[in-house]
Amino acid sequence: MNKIKGYIFDLDGVIVDTAKYHYNSWRTLANKLGFDITEEQNENLKGVSRKESLEYILSIGGISFSDKEKIKLAELKNSWYVESISNMNDSELLPGALNLLKDIKAQKLRISLGSASKNSVRILKSTGIYDMFDAIIDGTKTTESKPHPQVFLMGAEALKLQPEECVVFEDSINGVKAANDGGFISIGVGSETTLNHANFVLPDLSGTSVKKIEKRISNMYQILDK
Ligand code: BG6
Ligand code: MG
Predict the structure, then answer these.
(1) Between vectors from CA 206 to CA 157 and to CA 7, what angle results, nearest 5°?
(2) Nearest-angstrom CA–CA distance, 168 and 186
(3) CB of 12 closer than 6 A to ligand 1?
(4) Is 10 an annotated catalytic residue?
(5) CATH number, domain at 80?
(6) In this structure, is residue 1 part of a structural domain?
(7) Is residue 55 part of a domain?
(8) Total domains in the fold of the chain
(9) Measured by CB atoms within 10 angstroms of the end CB, which terminus of the chain is less buried, N or C?
(10) From ligand 2's centre to the CA of 225, what distance in Å?
């Protein structure tokens, strides 16, 4: 078993409570186009880039638009989303996120962001945690969308670590798949049923620590070695 030296975090739905704002904004757009999207369909939108999310939503509604119109629709959704995060502060950090980040820093381990969002820097700054990240890989730097592992592979590279030396925290099915396919240890954050492909799942980050995560991983390997 490798010593875990790097911690890679998805942003929306893992560190900050913004997944609901993405869902609300996409839902508003769908409603304006004359249809609705369900929470179940929204699970497939998590972790996916803005452009691909729009394609998926339009396929649900069975509507097609020109590329130019699609750019406008994506901008419209983003304007509502940005409006909903405009007054964001540290109260939107999800339970346990700040404590875990502090614990990782205190132990001199490395932290990267691995998010599809192009709004990530704005969010990290407004919640006051920007300086805790050694690397920020987000939708402004990637060319592939989760479930492709690119975002996490770039994160590991930026931390100068191998995937096997890093864990990935993810709240999306696509993100867990990306982490698994990239050779990372995947920790699902959320529902055990939804994220059943993760190496293990935590309901949220509260009460967890580097020590507890290391123990969980070592238990996992002991079972595998039997
Ligand atoms: C991901 C979210 O983190 O970022 C998706 O889970 C979102 O819902 C994607 O579509 C892109 O975000 P943004 O902020 O660039 O529109
Ligand atoms: Mg997410």
Answers:
(1) 10
(2) 5
(3) yes
(4) yes
(5) 1.10.150.240
(6) no
(7) yes
(8) 2
(9) C
(10) 31
In the numeric block, which tokens belong to residue 181?
A: 């396919």
Give the type of residue at 31.
N
50 Cβ inside 6 Å of ligand 1 = yes
Q: Are 35 and 61 in contact (CB under 8 A)?
A: yes
Torsion sign over Cα 53, 55, 59, 63: positive
Closest by CA to 184, choosing from 164, 204, 198, is: 164
Name the one residue in this structure whose structure tokens are 């192009």: 118
The per-residue pLDDT for range 5-30, each reduced to its tens digit, is 999 999 999 999 999 999 999 999 99
189, 145: one domain: yes
Cα–Cα distance, 148 to 143 (Å, whole number): 10
Helix (H) or strand (E) holding 48: none
Give per-residue pLDDT as tens, 202-217.
999 999 999 999 999 9
Give per-residue burial for 154-165: e unless 16+ CB within 10 Å, then b: bbbebbebebeb
Pairing assessment for the beta strands 200-202 and 166-170 based on DSSP bridges: unpaired
State in Å: Cα 176 to ligand 1 middle.
15
d(CA 186, CA 123): 23
Q: Contact, 166 vs 7, CB < 8 A?
A: yes
pLDDT tens track for 116-138: 999 999 999 999 999 999 999 99
